[in-house]
Amino acid sequence: MTAKRDKFGRPIVVVTGMGVVTSLGAGKADNWKKLTAGESGIRTITRFPTEGLRTTMAGTVDFIPIEPFSSTDLSERLGELAAEEAVAQAAIGAKGDFPGPLFLAVAPVEVEWPQRQELGRAIGAGTEVDYDAMLRVSGGGRYTQYHQRFLFGSVADYLAGTFGTKGSPISLSTACASGASAIQLGVEAIRRGEADAALCVATDGSVNPEALVRFSLLSALSTHNDPPQAAVRPFAKNRDGFVMAEGAGALVLESYEAATARGATILGIVAGCGELADSFHRTRSSPDGKPIIGCVRNALADAGLASDQIDYINAHGTGTPENDKMEYLGISSVFGERAKQIPVSSNKSMVGHTLSAAGAVEAVFSLLTLEHQRIPPTINYDVPDPAIPFDVVPNKARDARVTAVMSNSFGFGGQNAVLILTREPV
After folding, report:
1. pLDDT, position 63
2. pTM over 0.85
3. What domains does the chain contain, in order, with CATH numbers?
């Protein structure tokens, strides 16, 4: 690699560090080993009672204890672990002195049922729960603690302080596209010359009763509870919904010039980013597929690649009847007949849908695919859907020559983002 700029004259954005945590485990090595072996991290929920619920399984990260449990606290810890691994691999800056900004994708933060119930008990029955009442019961700073903990920017503030990132950290939430959006912000900052490096993190620890009930009421979740490992069935005819999961992914991005100047190992290139909003419906995609089609085309154009130069698609592949159908419509409209020939797989079949973290988690797995020249499988793919004639990599990993990966993130509310990742500049 000798070029410092891409074909559009922009700084080449490289990856020098990666970190990941999912229901399969902590760290790239453990995750990659299990992912390519076709193992599932989906399990029956034990964190809270599930009697009477239609869905009783999730891709929980229970090997990281959080007591008392809070999704915000778990999200913070997951993000910290992924960022630690990425920064350590990049060997950039000094501990607590990262030489660039933080872009964080995180789920909407709110006070959860247990904390609300505790405040309610402290305020007392029959008393209106308002700001003044909460201040009255905040002896020892209890309400102040809750208030700070459940601010949307609280996780970003903690990570920025821990890693010493520069400038004000940016928190964003674009539904299931959030992780890819955080990476896109890092890419754009480097391309504009505003930074030589960026820490892009996406984290989500949202498996709690309220979130599970909300998604269930949307009829979005799989109810295939037994066995839970067989619940996520992307692109299969018998798919019945997605499975909530937790995790975090982190990338250290740098300009090629800055990375080579300090002798860093380059793990891959973020060659292109595309986005396009839909706003058709809060959960459904526009039936003409135009937002997904446009998003894919935007990513290819940003990378300066044609569709026939993509060797593998890391699909959004949630396993919901609607999403999988629309993803095929979008890809086939852009790729034509090649949509039936290019390898496609869904990491979610094993780790579940990590929601706000998915775009970054799957970007890490895409980069590992480029590194190892091995495509992870889509497990539970036993009943192909004739209406979705993808070349799904079924149940076992596939060795293949992969130089460019398209990683899709299509979220509720029409938030669409696509990343193009390559081994070399294009």
Report:
1. 96
2. yes
3. 14-110+151-422 (3.40.47.10), 113-149 (no CATH)
